[in-house]
Amino acid sequence: MQNNQIKYINSLKLSKFRKLFHEFVAEGDKLVIELLNSRFEISNIYAIAEWIEQNEQLLKNSQVNVTQIRNKELERISFLSTPNNVLTIVKIPKPEIIQENIFSDLILMLDEIHDPGNLGTIIRTADWFGIKNIICSENCVDIYNPKVVQATMGSIARVSVLYKNLEKVLAGKPKQIKVYGTLLKGKNIYNKNLSKNGIILIGNESRGISDNLLPFITDKISIPSFPKTTGKTQYPESLNASVATAIVCAEFRRQHLFGNKVT
Question: Is 259 left (phi over 0), alpha (psi -120 to 50) or beta?
Fold first, then answer.
């Protein structure tokens, strides 16, 4: 590899260069294969000989540029502590607009999620529960941050993530669409009938949901805690944002896929 290639790839660790060049990096066998089979446009693939040989037919069908490199070269461009067999440069698609039919199913709305691991895990969780759309506040962590991309484990290829002004989106949504806000003083989610569609609003890891979004919440929900009843053991005041999202999504799907709503 030439030094200018290595320098360019490493520059994509930073948000300002991803925005400048409209490209991001993804690494690992599963993630790269998922992206090859997705809507994303691949600029180039850098891989060791064994990986290229194993995926020869897929690469031939996709007709992407592939550069064979040595393990030592992969170490120089990898963003991982332990480099995998393949790294790809992917074009960042143009921002999407919100389609009217987006409100026909569940939507995750994320308010100021700052931790890359949390956002990546939430995207992976949405994919698991068949939620196709996530709307992030404009100050959420960048979806194309390498740590976010890695944490999605390929789900970035199947879940649409939009960055919007949440207050404007909520003000312009159809009136019948419910907004479920996850709050510590909300109603126990297991004692509440949940709608088949609607918006699940998840707040910032430490501050929760922003004050300006609270008036848009139609249904306040919470996940009950089960602290130990003996001793002086302390328990967290709130759950991790990605863990809370998974629990809430599971209960929404449970009620509507298995026909056992709260009575």
Answer: left
